[in-house]
Design a protein that fits this description.
Blueprint (H helix, E strand, L loop, with lengths): L1 H14 L13 E6 L4 E6 L5 E6 L5 H12 L2 H6 L6 H9 L14 H5 L28 H13 L7 H32 L6 E5 L6 H13 L6 E3 L3 H4 L2 H14 L2 E3 L26 E3 L7
Parallel strand pairs: 1-4, 4-5
Antiparallel strand pairs: 1-2, 2-3, 6-7
Helix pairs in contact: 1-10, 2-6, 2-7, 4-7, 7-8
């Protein structure tokens, strides 16, 4: 996860033409990791200090979008797709030929955000956690949404779901999932504001970050809730999925900051990110040695 958080700093370095520059985004910043295996919001204070603010309690956002796509997309589109995950196909199906329009307006209030929006087809999707007594919990949950989509599609099999209903359901699935992400970002920013810490960047990384509608939802959601000053940073998908590049860059930043590992360092299966974790986070494991003091920017 540290590597995902630092990826935009790699991009900035690759694009910079100056020998002396400040890497961006500068600490502190937030990172939203959204993929088929992860959904996590992280507060990156320094190179080695990253706190997990929210994570999924069940399945990842990419997983629920993929499962919904398999149910919603016409069979011929599923069969013709070149991807093994169908999130990209679902986005193209939902918004073509209006991919740059969307017609989306973010909810102005928390009450509006968690209320169901009945469709003309008779179904309505609930915002995750909104009706469980945990509407303000700093966590993500997507399994209930996946079950709701499955129920709708199962019920509609007898009457055959027409094309427009499939389009409407695809758009609603993405709206609800992306607003769920945005709501937790807002909660985190409100808490950070109380601590008088200045955050100016939200990094959005992972396979789902390539979804253009997600970018629209996050930008308009932040704007309407009073966070228009927060910049969005979406690293290229090619780097977000290139583990070798991300890990190599993380090693470069750690080395430049004065950290090395000695020969006693061993591979471990699980390694916490948060310094408040039982194992001490990134620097809590054995094998680190500090060569010299370096800047974290």
């Amino acid at each position: 996860m540290q590597a995902h958080a630092l990826t935009p700093r790699l991009v900035h370095t690759l694009e910079s033409t100056l020998k002396d520059y400040e890497r961006e985004p500068a600490f502190p910043f937030l990172t939203l990791l959204v993929s088929g295996g992860h959904t996590m919001l992280v507060h990156s204070r320094t190179l080695t200090h990253h706190s997990i603010l929210a994570r999924t309690t069940d399945i990842a956002i990419g997983d629920v979008i993929d499962k919904a796509a398999r149910l919603i997309l016409p069979e011929n589109l599923v069969a013709a797709s070149k991807d093994v995950m169908y999130g990209r196909s679902l986005e193209e199906f939902a918004f073509q030929p209006d991919a740059e329009v969307y017609g989306y307006m973010p909810p102005r209030t928390r009450s509006e955000e968690v209320s169901r929006k009945p469709s003309k087809w008779g179904w309505a999707l609930a915002a995750p956690l909104a009706e469980t007594g945990k509407s303000k919990a700093k966590e993500f949950s997507f399994s209930g949404l996946g079950s709701a989509v499955e129920r709708i599609c199962t019920q509609r099999r007898e009457t055959a779901m027409v094309q427009q209903e499939r389009v409407d359901l695809a758009r609603e699935v993405m709206r609800v999932t992306f607003e769920h992400l945005a709501s937790r970002v807002i909660m985190a920013l409100q808490t950070i504001d109380q601590d008088d810490e200045k955050i100016t960047t939200l990094v959005v990384s992972g396979g789902v970050a390539s979804n253009q509608f997600l970018k629209r939802v996050l930008r308009t959601f932040l704007d309407i809730r009073g966070y228009a000053h927060i910049g969005l940073n979406f690293p290229p998908p090619s780097l977000c999925t290139d583990n070798a590049a991300m890990i190599a860059w993380t090693g470069t930043e750690m080395y430049e900051a004065g950290y090395e590992s000695d020969l006693s360092c061993k591979a471990i299966r699980k390694w916490s990110l948060d310094p408040d974790a039982e194992d001490g986070g990134i620097l809590g494991v054995d094998g680190w040695k500090e060569r010299r003091r370096g800047g974290n920017n």
